């Protein structure tokens, strides 16, 4: 059974269709990248999976379970999204403790105190960060909190939307290493959106290339070593990035 299965997925914002006929199977434990230029529809595919782009047709399945069009609580326990900008995605007046406790409270789970402590250490943050506010943290620490929040419900799938591109270059590698270690240790499956091909080489097993809302090629990430892509647009993207 695939961890994520998308079949003939069309997605619109109001009258405007932005994703066309996407078919994708991501295996359990796999790290899969969606690449392509800005506006090609990569983020929209992730958003549809978590319910943030509800105007879609086709099929979205996670671990064999069909996703409906509304909010789906059991779905959010399996599948969580991490956004690009950790400052924008964390409420400025909520402490780290509140941010990390909320998903547990919403799902009526007990043992919140212990779980908050656990996820902080999973992402390499000292317990003293617990009662701080986002503005008291660096960009990298904020992204660690956002990743910790995504992990609180013990999901099996993380959807990562440009998880390091808002960070200083020196911090990007730290967060990529953290994500790599978490995937291995927690047995997670990743679907990651990026325009950065070296990130794909470092983090991913396979990649799908999107152009104007369509997948034009699916290839092993190792193809980035040789540049041996079959699709013209992919070759153009590869050449424009100077290889990976
Ligand atoms: N909330 C929205 N309402 C209307 N149109 C949107 C919305 N979000 C994105 N779009 C449009 O949908 C198209 C695909 O956007 P999307 O963000 O999925 O692309 P992307 O490949 O992830 O690009 P980027 O890397 O810039 O985020 C774009 O034309 C964008 O303008």
TrEMBL record:
It holds the Pfam family ABC_tran. The keyword Cell membrane does not apply. The keyword 4Fe-4S does not apply. GO terms for biological process: transmembrane transport. GO terms for molecular function: ATP binding; ATP hydrolysis activity. Residues 4-237 form the ABC transporter domain. InterPro entries: AAA+_ATPase, ABC_transp_ATP-bind, ABC_transporter-like_ATP-bd, ABC_transporter-like_CS, P-loop_NTPase. PROSITE patterns: ABC_TRANSPORTER_1 (PS00211), ABC_TRANSPORTER_2 (PS50893). Keywords: ATP-binding, Nucleotide-binding, Transport. Belongs to the ABC transporter superfamily. This is ABC transporter ATP-binding protein. The lineage of its organism: Bacteria, Pseudomonadati, Pseudomonadota, Alphaproteobacteria, Hyphomicrobiales.
């Amino acid at each position: 059974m695939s961890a994520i299965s998308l079949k003939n997925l069309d997605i619109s914002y109001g009258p405007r269709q932005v994703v066309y006929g996407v078919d994708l199977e991501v295996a359990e434990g796999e790290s899969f990248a969606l690449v392509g230029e800005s506006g090609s529809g990569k983020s929209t595919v992730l958003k549809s999976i978590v319910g943030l782009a509800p105007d879609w047709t086709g099929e979205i399945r996670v671990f064999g379970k069909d996703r409906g069009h509304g909010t789906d609580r059991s779905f959010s326990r399996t599948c969580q999204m991490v956004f690009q900008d950790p400052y924008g995605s964390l409420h400025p007046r909520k402490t780290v403790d509140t941010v990390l406790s909320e998903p547990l409270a919403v799902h009526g789970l007990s043992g919140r105190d212990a779980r908050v402590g656990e996820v902080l250490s999973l992402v390499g943050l000292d317990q003293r960060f617990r009662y701080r506010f986002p503005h008291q943290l660096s960009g990298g620490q904020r992204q660690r909190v956002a990743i910790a929040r995504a992990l609180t419900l013990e999901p099996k799938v993380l959807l990562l939307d440009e998880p390091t591109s808002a960070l200083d270059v020196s911090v990007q590698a730290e967060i990529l290493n953290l994500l790599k270690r978490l995937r291995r240790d927690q047995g997670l499956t990743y679907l990651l959106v990026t325009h950065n091909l070296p990130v794909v080489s470092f983090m991913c097993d396979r990649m799908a290339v999107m152009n104007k809302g369509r997948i034009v090629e699916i290839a092993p990430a190792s193809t980035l070593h040789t540049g041996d892509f079959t699709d013209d647009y992919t070759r153009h993207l590869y050449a424009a990035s100077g290889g990976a």
